[in-house]
Predict the 3D structure of the following.
Amino acid sequence: MPAHAKRPSRLHRLLSAVLLLGLLALLTIGQRLHWDDQLRLLWEEQSVDEQTRAAGIWLPDYRLALETTLAGLEEDETSGLTWNPLTGTLFTVTGQNPQLVEFTPSGVILRRIRLDGFADPEAVEALGDGRLAIVDERRHLLAVFHLEPGVEHLDLANLASYDLGFAAAGNKGFEGLAWNPQTHRLLLAKERDPQGLFSLPFPGEDGTAGTLEALPEQPLLVRDLSSVAIDPRSGHTLLLSDESRLLVELDLAGKPRSFISLFGGLNGLVRGIAQAEGVAMDAAGNIYVVGEPNRFYVFSRQPDSTRPGTAP
């Protein structure tokens, strides 16, 4: 037998090494992107009964209902979003030119309020009692105020503000903010390095904020946290990730319950949401998303009539 037939050729060994390295690289990337966690949750979703689905948000039932632009904000970079049940409108903040913007569920802008003294507003939230709260990521603080009719600008120096810590976080601070009316706490999402969710007991207008508490770590399925919202019906939490292009539902224990991708071709999206920066949810279950620079999306729940146990 020829000598070259007794052992693999150098080319064969080289190809085997390249394939092995490629596989290891794919596994490493998949772990960093949480593909393993996503596949596990996708498998678990198949066995969830209809009653459990109906008790939460259940993102796989959601489809795009509206996609439009927020006119005039092309150069302003929307970031953060909240639904205000008292006005039936949405609010977002912009980072490039700091301002607070109110608009309708169909994307019609009603007013723009200049934010003086803010460096990098990243999140806004309606607290349910007429107050709004804004997180300034670069200044690591939370500002709270009443927005009066006819106001054209707000000065940070005149607003109640609270230090959120993490002074060394730079531009990797808090990007998400949500109000939980049942617990009277704010939920804050730190983007990354380290990524995490935090709870802040928040009082009435005459009190002081409590102590920021880190919530127990969970596999959140995402590379970063861009925004959070709380479903007023179930109390479940929505996580929005820009880098992973995902919406994730967390149950009351903080564990992932369902998710959908924000890539084009899925869930009614023709084009994907390239830079998703804010998410909000109303009492009817509609989900609103803003993306840079000024894109606006509405997702509505449309149960799959072909699934067993679902009414036609």
Summary: Residues 48-301 form a domain with the Neuraminidase fold (CATH 2.120.10.30). The chain has one domain: 48-301.
